[in-house]
Every structure is written in C-alpha cells, then in structure tokens.
Design a protein that fits this description.
By secondary structure, the protein is of the alpha/beta class. It is built from 16 helices and 26 strands. It has a seven-stranded mixed sheet. A seven-stranded mixed sheet has the order 15-16-19-20-22-24-25. Strand 15 and strand 16 form a beta hairpin. Helix 3 runs antiparallel to helix 6. The N and C termini lie far apart (about 50 Å).
C-alpha cells in the first residue's frame, strides 16, 4: 500500500488541491511590517480580504524600496493544506460509523499533509489576486519533489505548460502519521477550470470533517463536571513536567492518584530542532505516557502535532478542546471563510468525534472567560479565554497581535502547596478577572513569551518561576526581551526549556 509520503513524491503528474490558511506566522509578519496607522485594521475579526489587503500593502512598500529581481522571494511564508487522492481515499473512513470490528477503522490515524514555502516576488501579485478572487475555497496545482528525477524537466512538460501557471513556490511538504517527514520541492499553482472529481468534494467542502458532537454551552456545561469528576474528583496535582518540544508546547500534570493530564500535545515542525538530543529524549518520554485527560488550549499546529509521536492511548483519553468550527467567519460576500483552520486540525477533531465521541468535550464560545470546571478540593480548575483578537503596542512601542484562535484558549489553574497557571497561547488581557486575581507561583508563559501587553497576573509572595517554551530555530523573535523583563520585575525566575528535555515543577 502506498504511503502518504509516496503519494506526494511519486505522483508528480497528479493534480492536487490546496487550501490556504492563515497562521500565527503571517500575523506576526504583517504586524512587524505594517505602518503604524494601519495597525488598527487587524483589531476585531478581519476577513481574508482585509488580511490580503494588508499583505499587498506590505508587498507594495517592499517593492518600492528595491527592485524585484529574478528569483527573489517575497519573505512571507505561505501555508496550504494538501488534498490528493491518497487523502480522499483514507478519509473516506469518516463516512462510516467507527467500529472495532473493522480493521481499516482500527488502523486509521489522523495525519498531516501541509505545505509551507515562499513565492517568487514577481508572481506574488498574481497569487494574491487568485487567493482573493477565487470563488471556491481551494486552488489546484502540482508538487514536484526535489527527490524526483523529473524535477527539472517536468516544469517544461506540456501538461503544465498548457495550463496557466499562477505561481511557483519553493518549500517543503510536512508529511506525518508517524514519524514527521519532509519532502522539499516546488509547488506549482495553476489556473484550473477542469472538473473536480466528485469523490473530492466532501473533503474540499469540509462536509466529511463536520462533527456529530455539539459544543457545550451555558445550558449544558454542568455535564463537563460529570465527565471529569470520574477522573479527578478528589485528586491533587503533584508536579508538572514542561517538555522541550521546540517551538511548540506540551506539558504533563501528574495527579496524586497516578493519573496524567496533558496540557496540549504540541511538537515543533522544525527539522533542526527535532534532531536535538533534548527533544529526542522528550519525545521518548511523552510517547511512554498514557494520559487520562488531554486539555487542548487551541488548534494551532504547534499545539497538536505531537499526536504523531504519542502512543495510541491518547485517543482513549478524555479530550477538552475549544470549538474549532467557531473560527469560521463570513466574508463581505456573506460566504463562510475557513482560512483560519488547517485541514490537519479539522481531521484530528473529526477523528476524536468519530472514534470516541463520549470522551470529547467541545467548549463553545458562549463559555467565554469562565471557570468551566473545578474539582471539589479546588486544586484543579479549567478556564476559558475570549474569542477575540488583541492588537496593540507594548511598553517598548513594539507592535503585537494575538489572534482569536489563540485567545479563546482553554487554560488550567493548579493549586496545592504552590499554584500554577498554564494558559496556552492566551494573551493576559483576555483572561478572566477572577483567574487573574489568583496568586501565581509557577507561570507557563503564554504564546512562547512573545510580544504582548504587560502581564496582569498576581504574583505570589513565595517561590516564583516563569517557564518559557520556545525553539532555538524559531523565526518569530521569541522570546520577547520586554516580556522577560516585566516578569523579572515581578520577581519571577526565568527558566527556558532550551538545553533541557523537561522542567519539573513540584506543586
């Protein structure tokens, strides 16, 4: 049976479909390059057209300061989820109810097939217009692997030259069920007027990924207590292990009844970071853990990619996740815009809903800035952020933007001999006032210690530690020096995960 990597490398003549989506990276790039008077434009919930307008403004300014030479790349990364026939054939399992009697169902695992790369500057305007003007939510093209013998000659073959090439991007495909692999090459995006095969439609329009499980709202969230009390009713947290997973985040909370709770299950996608001895050791330990509960702060790739490394037992755990589909917004034409969501995230949520729906807790937007669960001993509580974007300037007059995908996070507060806050990527200003009023001994610093507003947390009187989870090879200027300085002024010792495979905090 052909593997997922072979499906993208060995079929250069097969047309593939591409779904563009916005990431934290593009927001940070926009903010870093956007003129001051346009920063307000990304407050609230901008649609794709507004974001593309800002990218185009940055491109125009960039072009004005220098000539666009041959083969120069515009320095904004593009991200596409890839849909080929292999994806369609494998995701057909979702058309049936999950059954332990079906060997195909038992073998299926969520997988990742994503492209990231850079467009030649001279063809960037064409690609941008295509992304804005397209009536559908996808593009089409071809991927030519550097490993393929036809790489150089295929670009000149009749099949491609007879089609209108919109843009050529240099980059790599991230391929994973397990382990993570990469395939470097060229993504050729073409103007496509051909008929879409009918079997592709349920994947391209996302109908195959829709969930049967509805999100919990204020009318039924008491059911969360019933589910969680079975595991952590009277137990207390003993320690937290914050793992070095590069430019990503994953922590394990050990309870005194022996149960393990994962706070996110992220893993870096950077090949250099993945090859460090500390991250290799962290991966081995994470894979040996059988968590009882997984609390997912949000759906960004760097917080979910670790499922490719974890044991299959994670899919038997209770999952608490924010509603992914509420990231959809309507554009100016009233059409649903899914460009804040990768297909990999949709596929993982669908798999959890398909395989183990009774163990899945989806938190709806109505439960904003609330404590959605607290055990009777008051030693562990689960909170939510707020579904909004936060833009501004920090005290060094540096611009920042934290997205609504990050801010409607699921946060964890722990209390025993010490207290700890695990906020995912939520910005301080979106956290509940009630949560911020609690003294915090141990802070897992949000969003990899990026630029954001001044920390509003209430520092404890005793031991204080701030843990920074970021990668040695990140391109986002994490951590931010002002953010570190502000935490230091509050009395926190700064401890990065870099150079260690994990940091243990005894609660």
């Amino acid at each position: 049976m052909i593997t997922i990597k072979e499906s993208i490398e060995k079929n250069p003549k097969e047309k593939i479909y591409l779904k563009y989506y916005f990431t934290d990276e593009i927001y940070e790039e926009i903010v870093d390059n956007l003129p001051n008077d346009l920063l307000f434009r990304i407050d609230g919930v901008p649609d794709s057209e507004q974001l593309f307008e800002m990218i185009d403004y940055v491109y125009s300014a960039w072009q004005a300061y220098g000539s666009i030479e041959e083969n120069v790349e515009f320095p904004f990364a593009f991200h596409f989820s890839i849909i080929n026939r292999w994806v369609v054939e494998n995701d057909k399992v979702f058309e049936q109810e999950y059954s332990t009697d079906n060997i195909i169902h038992l073998r299926y695992r969520p997988f990742f097939l994503e492209f990231e790369g850079y467009c030649e500057a001279k063809s960037f305007p064409r690609l941008l217009r295509c992304l804005v003007d397209t009536e559908c939510s996808f593009l089409s093209g071809y991927f030519i692997s550097d490993n393929g013998r036809e790489r150089e000659t295929y670009l000149n073959k009749d099949r491609v030259s007879n089609e209108k090439v919109i843009a050529v991007l240099n980059g790599r495909v991230l391929v994973s069920a397990s382990p993570i692999e990469y395939s470097k090459g060229k993504l050729i995006i073409v103007e496509d007027s051909s008929h879409v095969p009918p079997e592709f439609k349920s994947v391209l329009n996302d109908s195959i990924y829709e969930c049967g499980k509805e999100s919990y709202t204020s009318t039924n969230y008491y059911e969360i207590e019933k589910i969680l009390n079975k595991s952590i009713l009277s137990s207390k947290p003993r320690w937290i292990d914050v793992y070095n997973v590069g430019q990503a985040y994953c922590a394990a909370i050990c309870m005194d009844n022996g149960e393990i709770i994962f706070s996110d299950i992220g893993l870096t996608k950077d090949s250099i970071e993945l090859n460090t001895k500390e991250i290799k050791r962290a991966k081995i330990e994470i894979k040996s853990i059988k968590p009882r509960i997984i609390i997912l702060s949000h759906w960004d790739l760097d917080h979910i990619l670790g499922v490719t490394n974890a044991s299959d037992s994670i899919y038997d755990a209770i999952w608490i996740v924010p509603d992914l589909w509420n990231l959809q917004i309507k554009n100016k034409k009233g059409k649903i815009d899914n460009r804040l969501i990768s297909d990999s995230a949709k596929r993982l949520l669908k798999y959890l809903d398909w395989k183990n729906r009774n163990q899945l807790i989806i938190i709806g937007d109505e439960l904003s800035q609330k404590c959605i669960y607290e055990n009777p001993t008051g030693t562990i509580s689960v909170w939510t952020g707020k579904r909004c974007s936060v833009s501004g300037r920090n005290e060094n007059n540096k611009k920042y933007h934290i997205t609504r995908a990050n801010n409607f996070g699921v946060l964890i507060f722990l209390k025993n001999n010490y207290t700890a806050l695990l906020p995912g990527d939520s910005e301080y200003s979106v956290m509940s006032d009630e949560l911020l009023d609690k003294e915090i001994n141990f802070l897992i610093v949000p969003h990899h210690c990026s630029k954001m507003s001044r920390p509003k947390i209430k520092s404890a009187k005793g031991k204080k530690k701030a843990i920074l989870s970021y990668g040695i090879h990140n391109h986002h200027h994490h951590p931010d020096n002002l953010h570190i300085k502000q935490l230091n002024e509050m009395g926190y010792s700064i401890i990065p995960t870099i150079g260690k495979y994990k940091i243990r905090l005894h609660i």
